[in-house]
């Protein structure tokens, strides 16, 4: 949460006067989150009380963003946790607490470093991403699935290329800052609800691209 997409998303939310809450697996991550202005909630993913902790964390929230990966590979909240997959756990808690807005950051184009880190787990990682999308779509939520291209370290441009449709695919990479801005913008963009969208670097202003989606 303190580096990569999570840190950029936290700053983007704070710029909109939103208060981010970060769900993490290690108490060692707490000081950095607090320093970044993020309220930390530590999850013991093998605890029998995991569901109740997540429900408590989501109570009173206005939206949920799941960008923590699957159960496999870097950034994961843990594989087969004591309760459920991360997507099932978070979307189920959102449904239970009445938090309607849910954005899932999925993946179709892991970069070279992530592919190397995943190794033989790559097919499982992509399979779990597909399963996460399915789980979220089946919930009674105002969900959006974002499929970014390969995440890159790049200066923010405020511009993207958006693709929609039944099975949209990103057309290249995207900077983490621009993806974070896209997630933040999507939270309040009504035309993104119940849509699967592929996002990559491109020529279009982020807010305009989301606002111009056809019904």
Automatic annotation (TrEMBL):
Gene3D superfamilies: NAD(P)-binding Rossmann-like Domain (3.40.50.720). Residues 4-190 form the NAD(P)-binding domain. Pfam families: NAD_binding_10 (PF13460). The lineage of its organism: Bacteria, Bacillati, Actinomycetota, Actinomycetes, Kitasatosporales. It comes from the Bacteria. It comes from Streptomyces nanshensis. InterPro entries: NAD(P)-bd_dom, NAD(P)-bd_dom_sf. This is NAD(P)-binding domain-containing protein.
């Amino acid at each position: 949460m303190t580096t990569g997409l999570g840190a950029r998303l936290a700053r983007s939310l704070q710029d909109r006067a939103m208060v981010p809450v970060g769900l993490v697996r290690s108490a060692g991550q707490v000081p950095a989150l607090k320093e970044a202005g993020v309220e930390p909630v530590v999850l013991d993913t093998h605890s029998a009380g995991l569901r109740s902790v997540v429900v408590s964390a989501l109570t009173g929230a206005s939206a949920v963003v799941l960008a923590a990966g699957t159960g496999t590979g870097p950034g994961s909240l843990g594989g087969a946790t004591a309760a459920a997959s991360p997507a099932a756990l978070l979307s189920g808690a959102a449904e239970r607490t009445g938090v309607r807005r849910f954005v899932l950051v999925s993946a179709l184009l892991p970069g070279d470093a992530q592919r190397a880190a995943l190794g033989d787990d790559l097919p499982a990682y992509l399979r779990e991403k597909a399963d996460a999308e399915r789980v979220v779509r089946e919930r009674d939520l105002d969900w959006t699935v974002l499929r970014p291209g390969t995440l890159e370290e790049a200066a923010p441009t405020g511009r993207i290329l958006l693709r929609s449709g039944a099975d949209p695919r990103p057309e290249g990479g995207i900077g983490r800052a621009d993806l974070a801005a896209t997630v933040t913008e999507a939270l309040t963009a009504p035309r993104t609800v119940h849509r699967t969208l592929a996002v990559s670097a491109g020529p279009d202003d982020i807010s305009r691209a989301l606002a111009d989606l056809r019904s």
